[in-house]
Design goal:
The complex is a heterotrimer of chains A (about 300), B (about 240) and C (about 325).
Chain A lengths: L1 H5 L4 E2 L4 E2 L14 H16 L7 H26 L12 H4 L1 H21 L3 H5 L5 H33 L4 H9 L2 H24 L4 H25 L2 H6 L5 H13 L7 H5 L3 H25 L3
Chain B lengths: L2 H11 L2 H24 L5 H29 L1 H6 L2 H5 L5 H32 L6 H24 L5 H19 L8 H13 L12 H24 L9
Chain C lengths: L11 E10 L2 E11 L2 E6 L6 H8 L7 E6 L2 E2 L10 E4 L11 H11 L4 H14 L15 H13 L5 E5 L7 H16 L3 E6 L2 H7 L2 E6 L2 E7 H9 L3 E7 L2 H9 L4 E7 L2 E6 L2 H15 L3 E6 L4 H10 L1
Parallel strand pairs in C: 3-8, 3-9, 6-7, 7-8
Antiparallel strand pairs in C: 1-2, 1-4, 4-5, 9-10, 11-13, 11-14, 12-13
Helix pairs in contact in C: 2-3, 2-4, 3-4, 8-9
Classes of the chains: A mainly alpha (about 300), B mainly alpha (about 240), C alpha/beta (about 325).
Chain lengths: ~300, ~240, ~325
């Protein structure tokens, strides 16, 4: 208070005057690094779904999330109308079938989270605060993984709720379905982490949004197509190893390994390789991707 | 067509980074063919090459290249504001659209057909009974069709790249697997039908559900419709001066 | 000033033009005619200057009213660009072209034959004094150089009408003077020049005529000096916070320079006709009355408030 009163009278000379508008520095407590990371994570997660932005930037994330949910909802509705009808979808195969949608989400939204900051040269504004370079990298990566997790768990929850609600005895059905919870929660996690790490690693190196989107989808598509073609046409060892080129197959294999899922005639089954190999390679994708993102932000001139 | 616009567009589209990225993609195609050759599987050369050119070539390389060029030709210029220079000239918007489309399609075809030709020659160990030439010619037509759609798309939404991806991956990929009817309106399937007809490829090698007549009809519809839509959109395109 | 047809159509004419985006009105019922000379479009950021220029340039359709250039509508009429040179505000220029290539491309797109395009480009580059950098890619240019390259591109076909959106942004004082000189000379040759600016001083030095735009409306138009006089003669308003507002108000009202005082919601607002005398007198008055001043704020020294004063009149 005293500070304010001391300077209220305008300083003046015969020809000019400087008015004290009451601006003052802040010297109260500060929240620090952890809060900065949390804020950036939260803001980025909201941005991934276009929250707090124009309606146009919501179309893509919400549209993709809707498309990924629709088959589960339709399958649930069919169960309700014709109980016991065979459903093409299970907890085991659902996310595997929908991987391409998760990939489009990554290709569209990973650049949305990071490319602009580089292109408009605002990274220095972040790094001049409590936030360290590694914090920025991990907060952005975490936000993308969390967004993917949300998008992936939504249809799994729909499947879960559908199978509980169509049952005549809801409590008993709930008890039965409870055993599937590790699948419902675990599978989205298995899919979200490697896809986010791979996508973010590419986006972090590409300041132009359009190029980043193109590069991410190209990596997903080309590795997949090459893997499939070599597996089909090659011989012996080559056709066996070929599916490992495809990150989608790697992730499917990891899910089978960790969650004990089985999907008949999937490329994982066809490859006939030990499942931990898939898990190891997927872990490598996560580690290498995250390391690349961190490395990039360590080096980048802000 | 306008030579000056074509020249500027060409230099714009073939920037070093973009060209390198796309050549890298095409290189994968050639590399896979080479790996297959080295593994020495002479007997299955034809089905392998057919799979390579139709899945990785026409199914992946072609839409990606066309997507980048098609949405980049006009869309990128509108986004960064350089379109003002082009549009403040006594040149009809139709000429602008047609020139941009021609250059985008030409660039796409070059960067798609080149690697496909090379990969085909290596994979099939020759022309493979018309398979290679048929696929290359089909891809040239497919590039034009894709570009006409993507140029129009880039005048409708600022996120044309993502919507284009969604069309290629969800409509032509996911849905075509579930509902065969969607294949009639799939540029990828039209490309295969053209390749089939041009190369007179035995039906067993290239699995094409579309017959030539419907491919021609729907293809012409896509080309004319996309181009007219793009001309209409650009004709009444508003530039507000504020950064988009 | 109405949209009535005259014998010879004006170079640029707006008749009851409005433009809105959804619910937001950007330009509200504006009419004016321009025929030769330099006209400045003055207004704070977001007032609608760009929208007006873009409508004249045929890049935006008016929501109502008509915008005509040489008698024919600007919207959807590419042929008119033969008579218009446009310098947009946005920075973006083809980075990979050199200044000379950019000017030549503009000339060719204006329909100038290839043989003459190079000469036209060289002349335009000379006009903006860009010869030294003309053969470097624009990507390597400074802000001011890029701005001059844009002007060269707009001048290359020697247009009778020149539209410039914030043309002096990024220029250093010397370049600014040179550009003003150039525009003045071009106007003297009988061209019609319309430029926008939010800086009073730029408009004052260059424009013979001003159009003041505030919140999408035409607040004032005409000779610059006349408008300037109206602006400075207006009463000034201050808000004051003190230890005893009521006592201060009555003390102030005795002063001859005070035109009025009002106590409203705990805020003392004072109007004066003499800015300097008032600010010198207030501290003394307060001290004599034993009142402590906490705050003394002029409420209307920004350009925006000058404009809003004009609007209220």
């Amino acid at each position: 208070m005293t500070r304010r009163e001391a300077a209220v009278v305008p300083r003046e000379s015969a020809t000019g005057a400087i008015y004290d508008l009451g601006y003052q520095g802040y010297d109260g407590p500060r929240l620090g690094r952890r809060a900065a990371i949390g804020t950036l994570f939260w803001a980025s997660l909201r941005a991934a779904f276009g929250l707090g932005r124009s309606g146009r930037s919501k179309i893509v994330p919400w549209g993709l999330t809707a498309i990924v949910i629709i088959p589960a909802a339709v399958a649930g509705a069919i169960q309700a109308i014709a109980p016991g009808a065979p459903s093409p979808f299970t907890y085991d195969n659902y996310l595997g079938e929908m991987q391409i949608l998760l990939a489009i989400f990554v290709a569209a939204q990973a650049p949305e989270l990071v490319s602009g900051d580089q292109r408009h040269r605002v990274l220095s504004l972040y790094f001049s605060h409590a936030l360290a370079r590694i914090d920025y990298a991990l907060a952005k990566l975490g936000a993308l993984a969390a967004a993917l997790f949300i998008m992936a768990i939504a249809p799994m929850l729909v499947l879960f709720l559908a199978s509980v609600l169509v049952a005549a005895d809801v409590t008993a059905a709930f008890g039965d379905q409870l055993g599937n919870l590790p699948q419902v929660v675990g599978a989205p996690l298995v899919y979200a982490m490697p896809l986010a790490a791979l996508g973010m690693a590419i986006a972090a190196f590409t300041p132009r949004r359009a190029y980043a989107t193109g590069a991410i989808i190209a990596v997903f598509l080309v590795t997949g197509a090459v893997g499939a073609i070599l597996a089909e046409a090659g011989s012996g060892r080559m056709s066996q190893i070929a599916p490992l080129l495809n990150p989608f197959v790697l992730i499917d294999g990891t899910r089978d390994w960790l969650l004990g899922a089985t999907v008949p005639d999937s490329p994982v089954r066809a490859a006939n390789l030990p499942l931990p190999l898939f898990g190891g390679l997927t872990a490598a994708i996560v580690l290498v991707g995250a390391t690349a993102v961190v490395w990039r932000y360590r080096r980048i001139a802000a | 067509m306008n030579g000056v616009i074509a020249g500027i567009t060409l230099r714009q589209l073939l920037s070093r980074r973009r060209t390198l990225l796309l050549l890298l993609l095409g290189g994968v195609l050639v590399l896979v063919a080479g790996v297959f050759r080295l593994a020495g599987e002479e007997l299955r050369a034809l089905p392998f090459t057919a799979g390579l050119l139709s899945n990785l070539g026409a199914g992946t390389l072609m839409p990606l290249v066309a997507l980048l060029f098609g949405t980049g030709a006009l869309g990128a210029e509108i986004e960064d504001g350089t379109a003002t220079f082009l549009l403040a000239k006594p040149i009809s918007r139709r000429t602008v659209v047609l020139t941009k489309l021609a250059v985008a399609a030409g660039c796409s075809a070059a960067l798609t057909c080149g690697p496909m030709l090379l990969a085909g020659l290596i994979g099939a160990g020759g022309l493979g009974d018309g398979l290679v030439l048929g696929m290359v010619a089909g891809a040239a037509i497919g590039s034009l069709l894709y570009c006409s759609v993507f140029v129009a798309l880039s005048l409708i939404t600022s996120r044309a790249l993502v919507f284009g991806l969604a069309y290629v991956l969800i409509w032509e990929g996911l849905l075509a697997g579930l509902f065969a009817g969607t294949r009639t309106f799939s540029i990828r399937q039209q490309t295969l039908a053209f390749a089939d007809a041009i190369g007179s490829i035995p039906r067993t090698i290239l699995d094409t559900p579309l017959d030539l007549t419907s491919a021609v009809v729907v293809g012409a519809f896509v080309l004319v419709g996309g181009t007219l839509l793009a001309i209409r959109r650009l004709g009444s395109f508003e530039i507000s001066g504020e950064a988009a | 000033m109405t949209g009535a047809q005259t014998a010879t159509p004006a170079a640029v004419e707006l008749a009851n033009v409005s433009r809105w985006y959804g619910n937001v009105v950007a330009v509200n019922d504006i009419s004016f005619r321009l025929d030769g000379g330099v006209t400045g479009l003055l207004g704070p950021n977001g007032a609608g200057k760009s929208t007006i220029l873009h409508m004249v340039a045929g890049f935006l359709a008016p929501s109502s009213g008509t915008v005509t250039v040489d008698g024919s509508p600007a919207w959807r009429h590419p042929e008119m660009y033969r008579r218009i040179g446009l310098v947009p505000e946005r920075e973006a220029v083809y980075q990979f072209l050199t200044g000379r290539e950019f000017a030549t491309a503009n000339a060719r797109l204006q329909g100038i034959a290839p043989a003459e395009a190079a000469d036209a480009a060289a002349r335009a580059i000379g006009l903006v004094e860009l010869e030294d950098a003309a053969d470097r890619p624009i990507g390597t240019y400074s802000k001011g150089m890029r701005q001059r390259a844009k002007v060269a591109g707009a001048l290359v076909h020697d247009p009778p009408i020149l539209l410039l959106d914030e043309p002096f942004n990024g220029m250093d004082p010397r370049q600014r003077l040179h550009m003003m000189e150039l525009l003045r000379r071009m106007a003297a040759e009988g061209r019609t020049i319309l430029f926008s600016s939010h800086i009073l001083e730029e408009v004052e030095r260059l424009a013979e005529r001003v159009l003041v735009i505030v919140a999408g409306r035409l607040a004032a138009s005409g000779d610059f000096r006349e408008i300037r006089r109206l602006m400075t003669d207006r009463p000034h308003t201050f808000t004051i916070r003190s230890s005893d507002d009521r006592a201060l108000a009555s003390a102030l009202l005795i002063e001859p320079t005070i035109a009025g005082a009002a106590l409203d919601g705990g805020l003392l607002t004072v109007r004066t006709n003499d800015f300097g005398a008032f600010s010198r007198a207030v501290p003394g008055i307060a001290r004599r009355a034993g009142i402590r001043l906490h705050e003394l704020l002029p409420t209307d020294e920004s350009l925006e408030s000058v404009f809003s004063y004009l609007v209220r009149r």
